[in-house]
Amino acid sequence: MAEQFVGKLSEFKDGDRRIVFVGDNEIGVFRHDGKFYAYSNYCLHQGGPACEGLTIAKVEERLRPDKTSEGLFFSDTEMHFVCPWHGYEYDMKTGECVSDRKLRLRSYKIVEKGDEVYVVA
Amino acid sequence: MDLLAERGRRVTVDELNTTRLLAHARKQAVQRKFDDVLIVDVDAHHYENEHYGEILPFMENEVLKQINMGGRAKGGRGTLVPTHAGFTQDMGGRVTRYPMRGTEKTEPGRHRDIQLGERWMDAMSVDYSCLFPTGMLNIGMHPQKEMEVDLCWAYNRWLTEKVLPESNNRFFSMLCIPFSDPEQSLRHVETFGDRKGVGGFMVTTVRNLQVNDNAYMKVYRAMEERGLVLSFHSGPNWSEPVFRACNRFLSVHALGFSFYNILHCTNWVINGMGERFPKLPVVWIESGLAWVPFLMQRLDHEYMMRPSEAPVLKKKPSDYMRDMYYSSQPMEIQDMAAMEQTFRMINAETQLLYSSDYPHWDFDLPSTIWDLPFVSEKAKHNILGGTAARLFKLPPRNAAQKANLQKFGNLVTA
Fold first, then answer.
1. Which secondary structure element, helix H or strand E, spans residue A39, and what is its range?
2. Assigned fold of A3-120
3. What is this model's ipTM?
4. Is B109 on the interface with A (CB under 8 A)?
5. What are the residues whose beta carbons fall under 8 Å from the beta carbon of B345, sequence distance 6 or more?
């Protein structure tokens, strides 16, 4: 496993992403709420660029105690990123496919060295 | 441009580039040596509504033409073809190629739709695509029969005279017929049936007419005599009374695409159309595959008890269904054992035709067929393009494809 340079920490704003090429492999690196997350850029569905689409909060349907629906809301806590090919959504913090959490994108470790960010792949 | 994701991030992308978007598809094609396999996509789309300025002048009736063109001149008020509120294929911009579509650059000199088409075809290693419209798939819901006729006429003239000739023979079409008017449908077959790039005709199935009506027999006969293919292209319709019970696009889409083909396929089979036109190839398009075993079992079950209501039949409904063809997309790959059963029940090796449906939101790549673990090499070649090559008389584009077509009995000799 080698460390691949991703970018300068000072230039990596919250909400930014980079796609890193490691040989034939592609890794998406996100910075979200001050933390880094790195996942395979190959969607588990048909191999689309899973990390290159929208990042958008989870949509929730809130139910009242009597089981009636209050409607649709964006989550305050859970962020997703979406494969732009077909809309497969992944949990930013875990890489799980939110439609079936048994499925999970391969994740990669991020290492910070001073002002530099590396992904271990 | 910024793609706004409320409570999320803005994704800034300079422009859409289909080749770049589909780079992983190209990678798959190279890994699987798809350039050596003749691949025919029997259901791809373009957005003809972006070209009304070119299409409408081909309308024949001066009054109808003026109504459409005059309205557009005033700022595009109104719509030419029925549209649906709530149809959000782009999922609020999650499928980015929808909102960014207008930003993609093409070169002057060749039709934009051909250039865009070649980009996705080259990425997927698709050799030939059957080009269908998008908005015109709703033409069967138009309240004015004469407008349906004239819009189909104009679209078919534009497509065969302006678009297909620029495609280096890589695009063909099954032209949209104005099914609400059998006489005019026949005129379309007689006028366009022999044109280059016309492989057959397509009935949009979002409609409530009976495909077995006597008035259509001459239309089917004209297609059969010319060696053309008849296809039924499905779609969703939230305005259909039964679908008003649905509250989500997902539900209307999942049910609607299968529903209309189930409806029309039932009439086609039970009324013995397969007996009446045994040499007319029939393709059911864009309903997925899961509905086919369902309908086979339902119709066989009822037919065994009520043969007097289907007296033209000489075999079971499912046998007629196995004589017809099915486009593959959207292939419901969720339960592999169920998928294998479906392939067995429809004789996929000879009856299934690969389709992408690109650029629509639920497109399928050729790898969806190629990577199935239970499909033989011969079946993979047949489904991806060999069977369609025979149906539409399409030649190989290189020596390796020719060898593969020959190997699996799909080479068409001129």
1. strand A35-40
2. Rieske Iron-sulfur Protein (2.102.10)
3. 0.95
4. no
5. B292, B293, B296, B318, B322
Asked if residue B176 lies in contact with residue B185, where contact means CB atoms within 8 angstroms, the answer is no
Question: Does residue B395 lie within any of the structural domains?
Answer: no
Domain residues for B142? 2-367
B193: CATH: 3.20.20.140
Q: In whole angstroms, give the CA distance from residue B394 to residue B43.
A: 15
Domain-located, residue B324: yes
**Is residue A120 scored above 90 in pLDDT?**
yes
Nearest CB neighbour to B95, from listed A42, A56, A86: A86
Inform me whether the C-beta atom of residue B254 falls under 8 Å from chain A C-beta atoms.
Answer: no
Give pTM, 2 decimals.
Answer: 0.95
Contacts of A18 (CB under 8 A, 6+ apart): A6, A7, A12, A28, A29
Q: Is residue B200 within 8 Å of residue B231, measured between CB atoms?
A: yes
Distance between B284 CA and the closest CA of chain A, angstroms: 23
Question: How many domains does chain B contain in total?
Answer: 1
Task: Tokens for A81, please give them.
Answer: 């990123």
Q: What is the DSSP string of B147-158?
A: HHHHHHHHHHHH
Distance CA B36, CA B43 (A): 21
Cβ-contact A11, A18 below 8 angstroms: no
- Alpha carbon distance B138, B204 (integer Å): 7
Which residue on chain B is closest to A77 by alpha carbon? B7
CB atoms within 10 A of CB B290: 17
pLDDT tens digits, A2-19: 999 999 999 999 999 999
- Is B306 contained in some domain? yes
In A, which residues are within 8 Å of B92 by CB distance? 56
Give mean pLDDT in consecutive 10-residue pieces for chain B, a chain of 414 residues: 52 80 97 98 96 95 92 63 84 93 94 97 98 94 96 98 97 98 98 98 96 98 98 95 95 96 98 98 98 98 98 98 98 96 98 98 98 98 98 97 97 80
